């Protein structure tokens, strides 16, 4: 029997280092870049495409049983803040699918990462069988989170709601038999059966049996703080938390903190508010869980807990959206037992490769800090809202409970025309879409128009074009 030549390299490593593969990837990235460079301004549909576009949208409606919020079907091409639809129209994307595109559309670095990863033998990873991209993503994410926290481990999952489910299971197991959860009023946690019950939106749980025990805490009230003082608001919240703890002693597994409320209207609170509540949780053996599914990468620091300086209090953290893949991070104290967490799918190989590259690019960016681009973009946004209000004061009446018609933090931006009336706000988002701007709404009354711009590629000089469309759209919505 002949002896085969022994190689110290795997076939996989030879494949990924192949010159032919790298040339092919370069060619694809170059072709995408050349095509994307044609998309530099808002435009309407191309003649001759409308009929087929509308026919396809009808097919989508028939498949879903309900029309999509927008008549949106992407062509697969984009360029930074611009996205092309299948009817040939081009729009400015200021929502990024609710925040999963921090570097906009068709970024060459992310196209390269996705294409390279796509040649692996299988598209999907699972917890039973995986390749290196899953663990490289997890390692990078954890290393960033550990900079200012005691988080020690990470478990990757296929979606934000699943990451939150895993967080809740970890808290339940650690603090068994405690079965209650504390959450903030107006929070949003996802749309699984359990997360729909944790989230404070009755419309999201119509017909769902209520099996999860939730106690809702008031979020920080800025209007009350302006009237009676910050400490009085904090003291009142602490009294409410202790009331729950005394009413249900040793029955609370965790308190889930949205550090910036996403669906609740991009509202945050002072550090002192969170610290006071978290210290009570620590004294009472209640897990402190921060939900950063929407905040990650979008505040004035990479993590909202870094912005607030509260990493030392965290037991569990969930992240997603901007990271592409989602994850649950936790301290060593909250290490779960075998069998609690698993899943056939953790995600697709390109998700991990792109997610890791996004983490690297965010880390190396000029987005964060008091003089970073997140802060600069937020200031520019507020200035444009103020100018628009000065020009059209009738569109922007004062909103009870909100100190300004523009709000949020960093790349999480909201503004409130028409007094926050839901019908007018949703109509406004649709007129903006028709005029060439993709946005969305949030809040539970009042309602707001929401922006999640791609901070990694948007330029300050892009704002005038955005607000030209906003003005046109609001004028039509107000008519």
Briefly say what this structure is.
41% of the residues lie in helices and 16% in strands. The protein is of the alpha/beta class. The mean pLDDT is 96.
Characterize the structure shown.
- With 479 residues, the protein is α/β, with parallel strands linked by helices.
- The chain has three domains: 11-117, no CATH class; 124-363, Type I PLP-dependent aspartate aminotransferase-like (Major domain) (Aspartate Aminotransferase, domain 2); 391-471, Aspartate Aminotransferase, domain 1, CATH 3.90.1150.
- The protein is built from 16 helices and 19 strands.
- The protein has helices at 11-16, 19-36, 50-64, 96-99, 108-117, 132-145, 160-174, 193-198, 222-228, 230-247, 271-284, 304-308, 349-363, 373-391, 422-435, 463-478, and strands spanning 74-79, 82-85, 90-93, 124-125, 151-157, 180-184, 213-217, 252-257, 260-261, 267-268, 287-292, 316-319, 326-331, 347-348, 406-409, 412-415, 437-438, 440-442, 448-451.
- The strands form five sheets. The chain has a seven-stranded mixed sheet, sandwiched between helices.
- A hairpin with a 4-residue loop joins β2 and β3 (90-93).
- α6 (132-145) runs parallel beside α13 (349-363) and α15 (422-435) crosses α16.
- The protein is globular.
- The protein starts with 10 loop residues before the first helix and ends with a helix.
- The mean pLDDT is 96.
């Amino acid at each position: 029997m002949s002896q085969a030549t022994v190689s110290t390299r795997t076939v996989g490593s030879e494949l990924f280092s192949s010159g032919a593969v790298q040339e092919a990837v370069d060619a694809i990235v170059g072709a995408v870049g050349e095509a994307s460079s044609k998309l530099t301004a808002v435009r309407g549909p191309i003649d001759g495409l409308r009929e087929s576009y509308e026919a396809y949208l009808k097919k989508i409606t028939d498949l879903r049983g309900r029309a999509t919020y927008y008549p949106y079907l992407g062509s697969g091409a984009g360029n930074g803040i611009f996205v092309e639809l299948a009817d040939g129209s081009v729009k400015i994307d200021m929502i990024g699918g609710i925040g999963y595109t921090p570097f906009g559309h068709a970024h060459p670095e992310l196209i390269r990462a996705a294409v390279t990863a796509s040649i692996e033998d299988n598209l999907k990873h699972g917890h039973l069988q995986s390749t290196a991209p899953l663990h490289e993503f997890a390692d990078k994410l954890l290393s960033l989170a550990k900079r200012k926290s005691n988080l020690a481990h990470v478990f990757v999952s296929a979606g934000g709601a699943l990451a939150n489910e895993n967080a809740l299971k970890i808290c339940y197991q650690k603090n068994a038999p405690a079965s209650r959860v504390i959450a903030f009023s107006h929070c949003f946690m996802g749309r699984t059966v359990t997360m729909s019950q944790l989230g404070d939106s009755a419309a999201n749980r119509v017909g769902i049996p209520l099996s999860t025990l939730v106690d809702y805490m008031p979020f920080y009230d800025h209007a009350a703080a302006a009237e009676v003082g910050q400490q009085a608001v904090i003291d009142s919240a602490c009294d409410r938390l202790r009331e729950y703890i005394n009413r249900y002693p040793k029955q609370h597994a965790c308190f889930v903190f949205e550090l910036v409320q996403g669906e609740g209207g991009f509202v945050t609170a002072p550090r002192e508010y969170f610290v006071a509540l978290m210290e009570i949780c620590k004294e009472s053996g209640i897990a402190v869980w921060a939900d950063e599914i929407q905040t990650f990468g979008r505040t004035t620091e990479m993590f909202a807990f870094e912005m607030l300086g509260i990493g030392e209090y965290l037991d569990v953290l969930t992240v997603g959206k901007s990271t592409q893949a989602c994850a649950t991070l936790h301290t060593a104290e909250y290490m779960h037992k075998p069998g609690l967490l698993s899943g056939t799918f953790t995600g697709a190989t390109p998700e991990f490769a792109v997610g890791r590259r996004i983490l690297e690019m965010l880390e190396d960016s000029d987005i964060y800090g008091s003089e970073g681009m997140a802060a600069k973009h937020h200031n520019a946004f507020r200035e444009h809202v103020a100018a628009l209000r000065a020009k059209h004061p009738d569109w922007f009446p004062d909103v009870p409970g909100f100190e300004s018609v523009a709000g949020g933090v960093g790349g999480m931006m909201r503004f409130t025309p028409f007094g926050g009336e839901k019908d007018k706000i949703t109509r406004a988002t649709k007129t903006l879409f028709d005029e060439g701007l993709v946005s969305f709404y949030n809040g539970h009354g009042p309602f707001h128009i929401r922006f999640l711009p791609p901070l990694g590629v948007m330029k300050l000089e892009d704002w005038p074009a955005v607000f030209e469309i906003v003005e046109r759209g609001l004028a039509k919505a107000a008519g």
